[in-house]
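Recall the central idea of this unit: under ordinary conditions, the amino acid sequence of a chain determines the structure it adopts. In this exercise we apply that idea directly, starting from the sequence alone.
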Amino acid sequence: MPRAPLNSEAGASPMQRSRTKRGAYAKSADTRQKILDAARDVAGDEGFHGVSVAKIAARAGVAVGNLHYHFGSLDDLLRELMQQVTDQITSEALQAAESTGDVFEREEAVLRAYLRFVRRNPTYVRLAEEVRVHHPDIYNRVLSMWLELTRASLEDGIEDGTLRPMGREEIATLAHYLIGARYFLDQMIDGVHGHAYPGDDVVVSTYMNLLRAGLGKPGHGGATKE
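Accordingly, the structure predicted from this sequence is:
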């Protein structure tokens, strides 16, 4: 009876088969991420209307069949891309907030993390707008989460005496203002208005002075800082 090739799975030990499967899984995961990265670049450059399976495959350096194998459809691929991007920025901002003290320190840490992410991922500004228009369910879910976190942070600041007293409606309105400000900072970084970005320190200082002057309780951060 002919022998099976030495490298066949049939003749491999359980450990060898396990290593083979792990290697195949790692390669598959790498290909999947390569496709997501290519989709992010194409969508960031051209918008969702300019995205096609052929363009993504060419940018990723893979066969078109790989896209269908890993994601099923172009829409499923773009949805997963948007989910990955929003999860990443949310995770980085939450990690920054967890390592700080009062509401002002948390807000500054989150803002700096957000600015770093946007500068490190220049296609994010356009992708965020594409999500709002084409996948409102993802956009609204993330927005609702951020509004809830911001409201909770403001309520904590009022409770510990860092912020002046505010009613529920004012807190809810301020949460929208604070989240909205980040959108326009995206635009500033992206240079859509023709003005050079002044740098994170200037942006953060201006933002925090506005918050401290408008929200701080006298004697607890109400004065602006240079």
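DSSP finds nine helices and no strands in the chain.
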